[in-house]
Design a protein that fits this description.
Largest sheet: 10 strands, mixed
Strand content: over 45%
Number of strands: 50
Shape: globular
């Protein structure tokens, strides 16, 4: 905490905000001066001093860095009414230590104290205030942490959290050090010293300093306070013990990683959270627990890059939903034989994209395979993978198909259909839902006159029982007369609805509620786009495939089926186009996936009327959009399925669409979602996680700008 505040203030020293030229204040303001002198104790080893007058919403300048001897300081405060301020001073000790203190008025002199001790400075418009001289000094406390037998624990504790200083009466940490390290104190202030109280895995319970030679106090109220004079150096000892223990087994979650047991009670600040690692056989032991009431639960990670899975609280013999806490009656208490439940993976799991293959020169008609299950965060038990497939650098047109290695030999023949149709001079991407065979391998093969670079990024995976079943691609429709398949023969007329029966065809069962389909537009002679939606529904304002003259363009999508098991097609263009539909899977009722009629949730183009993302995206800047509640997405949705289109790009680039991280980090992944070129509108299907945040991040890797459209085609929930 100390270091983050120092960094913030240092940044403020370097960045000054200039007033807006010609701005007129809302009310008359009067300049006020607050000044004084900092006198630095020459024995404190101070390198430099920073001072800041905190007046809440009233702006003040930051005094620049004062030298090792301190010196005079002065603040100008401009305000139209009385302001209440506090003076903050940060002392830097030659890069080895720091002190963060607040001005405390002691009559004829002042000192630095804790936040809770700060003197309020009342500033009236037009006043000139001169504060008493402030003495900057330091005291040093060394803390030795030992066990109850007096043996040093310096090598047994986490140095980042072994000892923490707290202002007496406050639970806000004010400084931290490792065992046996030195703590810088503000002289005259009163502290509590706690040891080993950070939430982590440890055999030793957290204690407060209770006097040398004594076992540490169990509560803050029983702790012995510490206060040092200026220049004083003192050593104290805090003793720990192992105290109570909880052990048992975790049932389930064998297909998860990083299984952990947590023992905690957030409502009792004197009880420290303790963690325990779960062994391969499911056993666990958590030590270092003080007497009290605890909740116990297991958690794990769904993959190396995806969300956390948490089991229910331990209930013992009580099956009630609201579990009573586990009571540990004394320091020698043990609770053995606990059985914790941890649900296995289910549904469709979205993850930050992970690259599994970058094959820079794939020749035509030469299948290659890659291991997916058991790598890239995909468990070996996964039933299918969600991929983003990118092609780059071909010297002629062609296509690539990605499919399961069903034979288990790496020689499975490529099926009919395409995953990505590529063209000269462009990087093209498309999403793919692909079944994982017993050996967990996926294969890819190209057709065309040249070699091409193939990139495979895993964006998620499907478990058995997810409600989504994938299959080897089966052709449902090809309107071209020379290769005709299905109900429609001949190219589609523009702006006319065509309906295609799906249920009962191309491997889709009669009870399916949705279909996973790769949609390809062939033979376009004008710009346009194709809309695919539930059969018989109103034509939506959402495109599935954007196409251009002379190019074959494909895009994957998930479409709800009508009650009759059909989907509809609608081409928005001025000429006729041929359409190919390849089915790669279907959605069952009651599963994790809920397909919906495509619904527009983002349109950054000016005049679109949408305000969640306005104007073209500037290159290399993350844009966060909260989709919670949009298009009927429920609060418990684990992921959302979007058809994302890059519109009017001004330069070559790619768009990356990904979930906001657990800690709020929006750093973009390496893998792209949509690759685009100037003069073309390029779509792709994207599956994005929605937990614990409902925020989706859009990042355009380009030297120019690009508009973005996103249509929700479905969402995922935990089964």
């Amino acid at each position: 905490m100390r270091r983050s505040r120092v960094a913030t203030v240092l940044a403020a020293v370097m960045v000054m905000v200039a007033p807006v030229a010609g701005a007129t204040p809302a009310a008359a303001v009067v300049a006020t001066t607050v000044g004084g002198t900092l006198a630095v104790d020459p024995g404190a080893g101070v390198g430099s001093v920073l001072a800041h007058l905190d007046c809440g919403a009233v702006p003040t300048a930051l005094v620049g860095v004062l030298g090792a001897d301190g010196g005079p300081f002065e603040f100008d405060v401009t305000t139209s009414s009385t302001a209440t301020c506090r003076l903050n001073v940060i002392v830097l000790g030659n890069g080895e230590w720091s002190l963060d203190g607040w001005y405390v008025d002691e009559g004829t002199t002042g000192r630095l104290g804790l936040d809770s001790e700060a003197t309020v400075i009342t500033v009236h418009p037009g006043d000139t205030l001169s504060l008493p001289p402030i003495t900057v000094s330091r005291a040093v406390l060394t803390v030795d942490v030992a066990d109850s037998a007096g043996r040093d624990l310096g090598s047994s504790l986490d140095p980042a959290s072994a000892v923490v200083l707290r202002g007496a009466g406050s639970l806000d940490p004010t400084d931290a050090t490792g065992s046996g390290g030195s703590l810088s104190l503000l002289p005259g202030s009163t502290y509590l010293v706690d040891a080993n109280r950070a939430p982590r895995e440890s055999p030793y319970t957290g204690r407060y300093y209770a006097g040398d030679g004594a076992l540490g106090a169990a509560s803050a109220a029983a702790a012995t306070t510490v206060s040092l004079a200026a220049g004083e150096a003192r050593t104290v000892s805090v003793r720990l013990d192992g105290c109570a223990t909880v052990s048992g087994t975790v049932a389930g979650g064998a297909d998860l990683t990083d299984r952990t047991v947590t023992v905690a009670n957030p409502s009792d600040p004197d009880l420290v959270t303790r963690l325990g690692t779960v062994a391969a056989d499911g056993s666990f032991t958590v030590r270092g627990l003080l007497p009290g009431d605890y909740y116990v639960w297991a958690s794990a990670v769904a993959s190396a890059t995806s969300s956390q899975v948490t089991g229910p609280y331990y209930r013992g013999a009580d099956p009630a939903a609201d579990a009573a806490p586990l009571h540990l009656s004394g320091c020698t208490a043990t609770a053995a034989g606990l059985v914790l439940e941890l649900p296995g993976l289910s549904g469709v799991i979205s993850q930050t994209p992970v690259r599994v293959r970058d094959d820079r020169a794939v020749p035509p008609d030469a299948p290659r395979c890659v291991q997916v299950a058991g790598t890239a965060g995909v468990p070996e038990s996964a039933a299918g993978a969600v991929l983003n497939v990118t092609t780059d650098g071909p010297t002629g047109p062609g296509y690539v198909v990605v499919y399961p290695d069903s034979s288990g030999t790496g020689n499975t023949a490529p099926p009919r259909g395409s995953t990505v149709n590529f063209e000269v001079g462009a990087s093209v991407a498309n999403a793919a839902f692909v079944r994982l065979p017993d050996d967990g391998k996926l294969c890819y093969a190209t057709r065309g006159p040249s070699t091409v670079r193939i990139i495979l990024d895993v964006t998620g995976y499907m478990m058995s029982g997810s409600g989504i079943t994938t299959q080897v691609s089966q052709r449902l429709l090809d309107t071209r007369l020379a290769t005709h398949v299905g109900q429609l023969a001949g190219a589609l007329d523009p702006r006319q609805v065509y309906t295609v029966d799906v249920a009962g065809h191309a491997g889709v069962p009669s009870g399916a509620t949705g279909v996973l389909v790769n949609v390809t537009v062939v033979g376009a002679t004008a710009l346009g786009h194709l809309r695919v939606f539930p059969g018989g529904a109103a034509v939506p304002n959402a495109s599935t495939v954007n196409y251009a003259p002379g190019q074959t363009k494909a895009n994957a999508t998930v479409v709800s089926l009508s009650a009759a098991g059909a989907i509809s097609l609608y081409s928005v263009t001025s000429t006729r186009v041929d359409v190919i539909l390849d089915v790669v899977g279907w959605v069952s009722a009651g599963g994790a996936y809920a397909p919906i009629t495509p619904t527009r949730v983002i349109d950054s183009r000016p005049g679109s009327g949408r305000t969640n993302l306005e104007g073209p995206l500037t290159g290399r800047i993350p844009y966060q959009v909260d989709l919670g509640g949009a298009a009927g997405i429920p609060a418990d949705a684990t992921a959302v399925v979007l058809n994302v289109t890059a519109v009017h790009p001004t330069a070559l680039g790619n768009l990356r669409v990904y979930p906001l991280a657990f800690n709020g980090d929006d750093t973009p992944p390496y893998a792209s979602s949509v690759n685009y070129i100037p003069g073309r509108d390029i779509p792709n299907l994207v599956v994005v996680g929605m937990q614990p945040h409902s925020t989706v991040v859009f990042y355009s890797d380009t030297s120019g700008s690009v508009n973005v459209i996103a249509d929700v085609v479905g969402y995922l929930t935990a089964p």
